[in-house]
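Support case: magnesium ion complex. Customer-provided input:
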Amino acid sequence: MSSLATVVTNAEVVICCGSGGVGKTTTAAVLALEAARRGRRSVVVTIDPARRLADALGLEGLTNEPRAIEADLDGDMYALMLDTKSTFDGLVRRYSSDPDQAERILTNRFYDNISSALSGTQEYMASEKLYELAREGDWDLVVVDTPPTRHALDFLDAPQRLATFLDHRLYRILMTPTRGIVKAVNVAAQTVVRSLSKVVGGEVVADAIAFFQAFEGMEGGFKERAAAVDELLRSDETAFVLVASPKADTVAEAGYFAEQLDQQGIDVRALVVNRMQPTFGAETAGGEVTTAATARARATTLEGTAIGEHYRALADALQVAEGDEVHLAGLAGQVDPAPVVRVPVQPFEVNDLEGLAAIGALLMVEDD
Ligand SMILES: Nc1ncnc2c1ncn2[C@@H]1O[C@H](COP(=O)(O)OP(=O)(O)OP(=O)(O)O)[C@@H](O)[C@H]1O
Ligand SMILES: [Mg+2]
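Agent response - structure generated as follows:
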């Protein structure tokens, strides 16, 4: 069985990561589909899918809950579109001590800002949703798409980051007056509040203080959850699939990702190189492989004829393909022993189940 077929058959969690526009959302949907074709019950968490793909997956409007995909599969495939805000709201409800506390937070203007604007929130909520589905849902496989970012760590670090934010000194200082422990700190806090008010306006600060006060007692829950998500991301049941394209700049970005994952002690299970230059016609019936150089030489010999034109087009395509391979060599070495799975650029937009199935067939081929 190929590596990716093994992943969709056995893994419990798959995370598709990589830089912007390389095909993460497409790959994530394809892997969930392949698992369902094999009789599993899969769910894909997509992030901002292209409109037409969202329609094909039945995701009109924002749906933070899995929806079944209508298709003739041995298993079941579900999809959902991550809604950052309602996932965050769900966390607040889960960790608040009573509905009143939840309500105070959810209606707070400062919360409204941070729940969508705090850096890494989307990554955090993606990993939170993953955890919720993987641990509490009835799924064989949860596939997660990730937001476009240059830093693999944005996704890995996100759960910890909120916990750290709640641990922040300013938070402690602001909280202290309500506990009224030490008068000196109280004075310090007043000074901080006064100077902050000058910069961002008294109303914002009042909202922030109200928010932190409402949040009291919830840090512990958030921190425990962050640690549990982190553990799931690092467990053996989770497979990271790195998606890249063969162009020099995205290969460099993928290399940076691979390096960061490696530093975190996380293995890349497979490298998908999407949008490879197709090389149809490079291999003759006799198995002889034409190179860009030989095609170019034949084009020159046959200059002015129709077949000469075809050879020139083939030479151009092969030259791009050979360039792609040169760019890839270093990256393939970097993720070794993970296999490199090449997907040629398709002559159609991949935005329906048929398109996903076509990519699926290419992803499941034996590794080289
Ligand atoms: N092999 C392919 N051949 C042709 N089109 C493709 C291929 N793979 C993906 N596409 C198309 O490229 C576009 C980008 O793909 P996709 O949305 O999966 O990338 P992404 O990495 O999720 O992007 P972003 O970082 O913006 O979220 C989509 O319109 C998709 O249909
Ligand atoms: Mg995407």
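Confidence is low (pLDDT under 50) at residues 177-185.

Case will auto-close in a few days if no follow-up is received.
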